[in-house]
Amino acid sequence: MTGGRLVVAALEAQGVERVFCVPGESYLAVLDALHDSPIRTVVCRHEGGAAMMAEATGKLTGRPGVCMVTRGPGATNAAAGIHVAQQDSTPLVVLIGQIERGMRGRDAFQEVDYGRMFGGMAKWAAEIDSPRRIPEMISRAFHTALSGRPGPVVLALPEDVLTGTADAAPAAAARAAEPAPSPAAMAELAGLLERAHRPLVLAGGSRWTADAVAALHRFAERFDLPVGVTFRRQMLFDHTHRCYAGDVGLGINPKLAARVRDADLLLLLGGRFSEVPSQGYELLGIPEPAAALVHVHPGAEELGRVYRPALAINATPGAFLDAAEGLPAPPPGRSDHTRVAHADYRAWSDEPPDTPGALRMGAVMRWLRAHLPEDAVMTNGAGNYATWLHRFWRFRRFGTQLAPVSGSMGYGLPAAVAAKLAQPERTVVCFAGDGCIQMTLPEFATAVQEGAAVIVLVIDNGMYGTIRMHQEREYPGRVSGTALRNPDFAALARACGGHGETVERDADFGPAFARAQASGLPAILHLRIDPEALTPNRTLSEIRAAGRPR
């Protein structure tokens, strides 16, 4: 078979259902092989959007999403999605067209050394040098992307390798090893749990499954433990559950931050507790946390990397929780501790505050909470607007959140498209700021072409709101580089063949959303928000007045 056919056969053997791409002449042989393949080819408008769609697929399914891009500019454009996968610990395989082998080192047309370019970002970056090695290298790529702490893998495909031929068979689908805790480690944990008076579980990271999430609920109930979730991992625990304590991320509930600081036992399950959840590495001492830290992580290299754990357990969340089923439950006595933690969360998130303007995000959130099904998939990129979703939406189920731990703008729309293609029966809603959406807005045309009926809420306050907030704090009144003159987003949606409406009052949001759903088309609701409504708690003017002039 040709190298191009070998690539596609290898992807089929891995169970890949769709690939996200922007086509390029450097991998025409792969595109030709896809013509006869059951794999669905999703044609995107920008390689960054294609990589984010593939990354979101990895988040949603636990299997590597696959992105294909052309050499040079295509690869550099895809870097945004590769970085999301690295920071978010998501399995991703990126296949990049490459110059012919005999042209290496001449600075040929669009030549890039991908090992050097992505070496610090990808788990593995390599170039396939022979058609017969394609099955081996793609098998390794999937194993690497899935194993330990998941992440992105980049493979370059020289054009002459793809047109060359070899007699080779694809490897069977990769299965990641599942590290599990030792009996001695679990016995030590049992003692720590029994002695703890102020324990707290923080769930995060990846390699979760629906079964593992259900086991976490049982574990929390049995041991009467409050459970928090780390930044943009809110789907790991039912927000209405009596053990839920809130999310440890941007705009953290001050009472939850105090609870982390005051814990005498902290069980960090699956995550790394990096800059955002640790509030700038201030919540825990480095390297010695004040609390007894039990760190459970599938990547052994992450244990002790920043924080010295009292007990390090190299395990996936599911394997750890399976082992925890056999632990003896301590005597009752922590109900008040857990009850107060949940009450603090409810007080922080039950009622969205009123903000200036005729259309208020509090009213939007109240309507969504009252009308959307609990299995709706909610996506977002980066910006102050996301605070409304993270704080006031009730995540109930696993697989209902797609959001970048990396804080990448533009992520919400491509993630929503990927989610709707993977699970077309579910409601998929994208939150996006007016600055955020314009990073990947062309992917709305991809949604129309693919029939992915997502509903995009463009929250427009005429500025890069998060940067304006920081600007007003540090340089009050000196606005520079943050103003936006925006297009008519609803008209753009209609121009692409979708549904578009502009919403300017509270009372108009619900009917507009219902019409968007009824249309059966990808939809944009252009929400015009008062610029003063910069955060749920403080107006733009209040932030400016409290700023520190330089």
Explain how this protein is built.
With 550 residues, the chain is of the alpha/beta class. It folds into 3 domains: 3-163, 3-Layer(aba) Sandwich (Rossmann fold), CATH 3.40.50.970; 183-348, Rossmann fold (3-Layer(aba) Sandwich), CATH 3.40.50; 351-545, Thiamin diphosphate (ThDP)-binding fold, Pyr/PP domains (Rossmann fold), CATH 3.40.50.970. The chain is 39% helix and 16% strand. The chain contains 21 helices and 18 strands. It has helices spanning 3-13, 28-34, 47-61, 73-88, 114-118, 134-146, 159-163, 183-195, 210-223, 254-262, 317-324, 335-349, 361-371, 386-392, 412-422, 434-440, 443-450, 465-474, 489-496, 506-519, 540-545; strands spanning 18-21, 40-43, 65-69, 92-98, 124-127, 152-158, 199-203, 227-230, 244-248, 265-269, 292-297, 311-314, 377-380, 401-402, 428-433, 455-460, 499-503, 523-528. The strands form 3 sheets. A 6-stranded parallel sheet has the order 2-1-3-4-6-5, with helices on both faces. Helix 15 runs parallel beside helix 17. The model has no long low-confidence stretch (mean pLDDT 95).
